Fold this protein.
Amino acid sequence: MSRLSKPTAGHVFLGAGLLHFLVPRHYEAIMPDYLPAHRELVYASGVAEAAGGAGLLSSSPTVRKYSAWWLVATLIAIFPANVHMAVHPERYPQVPGGKVALYARLPLQLLFAKWVLATARRKG
C-alpha cells in the first residue's frame, strides 16, 4: 500500500457510508430479498461504513485498529448483497461489465479488507 492510499480508505468509507443516506434506494435495490427491513439495514450499514471510515482517519492507532476491524466485520456483513448481485445479474443491467464485473467484485472485498487493515497500521 502506498503512503498516499492509506488515509484515502477512511475518506472512501466515510463517503460510501454517507451515500447510504443520500441515495438509499440504490442500496435497497441490491439487498437480498430474504432480508427484512431494507431501508433500516441500508441506514445501519451506512452508519457502520461512515463510522469505520471516520475512525480510520483518527490519529489514534487504537481507534484506527478497532475501526479497521469494524470495517472488516461490515464488509463480511454486506457480502451477501454482493453475492446476491452476482447470482442475479439480470436485475442489475446498469452495472458496466455485467455478470463478469459482478463476480469480479466478490474477491475485491478481500482487497478492501486488506486496505483498511493496512490503513490502521499507518504511522501518525
Summary: The chain has a mean pLDDT of 92. The radius of gyration is 15 Å. The helical segments are 5-22, 24-28, 38-56, 61-87, 98-120.
